[in-house]
Structures are given as structure tokens and as C-alpha cells.
Amino acid sequence: MSDFIHLASQATAIITPHLPAITAYVAGEAGKAAVGKGIDGAFDAAKSLWDAVSAKFAKHPKAEKAASDLTSDPTDLDYQSTFASKLAEVLAAEPDLVTELKHLLESPIVQRIVADDATVRDTQQIATSVAKSRQEIIAHSGAVVERVKQQVTDGRSNP
């Protein structure tokens, strides 16, 4: 069971910061989703995890409730803990989901900031990954990049 708990905790740590943008994207609110998505692969990774988990949660009402609660307030630590716990239970019952999540968690995350004759300032990107992550800043002629922070965390510590 501890492998399931660890896997569920990793997935939860990746999904949670992107959940408002994922919810907006699913609801068709493109503007809000674009703001949350940025131009990095972290959103795509989180959405892929969310999609995989959500599909299986449909067969598990208590897990579905935990997902609904987390969606209502992704910053609530109790909701995060309950979601991770219910995900671990679903993983124990759904071996194909274990395989899928392991594959998704091994995919590299790429974060990129590109400035073409523009100013990028006061920006923070955090990649939560147990896999390889790469962060880049590309500034072309005339671009200004100021106060940009990029960080990679394993999801077990606060950035």
C-alpha cells in the first residue's frame, strides 16, 4: 500500500497547483485556462494525470467526492490529503491506473519562457516532478527578462 500512497502523493502534488486552470480549461473558459497554463509542459502533465485519475474515479463514488472537494478549493490541505488517500485506494483496485500514472510521472517536464521583443518580469515557474525536468529562458534581441524564478521540486517539500 505504501507504493500506492507514494504514487498518489506525487500525482496530487503535480495536479493541485494546476487544478484551477484545468477546471477552467474543461469548462471551456479559454482565457482563464491560458493564464494558468502559461507556456510550459507542467500544465499538460498535470492535466494528463487529472484526466487519467478522473476517468477511474467515476467508478469510485468516495474518490469522486474527494476530487470534487479538491476542485472546489485546491489549496485546502485536508482536501489534498483526502484526495491522495482516495487515489491510493483506487490505485490498489485499478492496476492499469498504476501503470498509466507511473508512465505519466516519468515523462519529462519542460518549462520555457520566451521573450521576443517583450518584457517578461515578476514570473515564477515551479515544476513538480520526480522525473527529468528542464527549464529554459530564451530572450531574443530587444527582450527584457527581470525577476524570473524557475524551480524544480519533488512535490514533497514546499518550494
Question: Could you explain the architecture of this structure?
Answer:
The protein is α/β, with parallel strands linked by helices and 159 residues long. The chain has two domains: 2-106, no CATH class; 109-153, no CATH class. It is built from seven helices and four strands, in the order αααααααββββ. The strands form two sheets. A two-stranded parallel ribbon has the order 1-3. Helix 2 (19-26) runs antiparallel to helix 3 (30-37) and helix 6 (77-93) packs across helix 7.
Write the layout of secondary structure elements.
Elements: H1 2-15, H2 19-26, H3 30-37, H4 41-57, H5 61-72, H6 77-93, H7 95-106, E1 109-115, E2 119-128, E3 133-139, E4 144-153
Parallel strand pairs: 1-3, 2-4
Helix pairs in contact: 1-6, 1-7, 2-3, 4-7, 5-6, 6-7
The helix content, as a percent range, equals: 55-70%
H/I helix tally: 7
Distance between the termini: 27 Å
- The ordered H/E elements are HHHHHHHEEEE
Which strand order does the major sheet show? 1-3
Radius of gyration: 17 Å
Mean pLDDT: 80
Oligomer: single chain
**Count of separate structural domains:** 2
Annotation keywords:
2 domains; about 160 residues; elongated; 7 helices; two-stranded parallel ribbon; alpha/beta; 4 strands
Structure, briefly:
With 159 residues, the protein is of the alpha/beta class. Helices cover 55% and strands 21% of the residues.
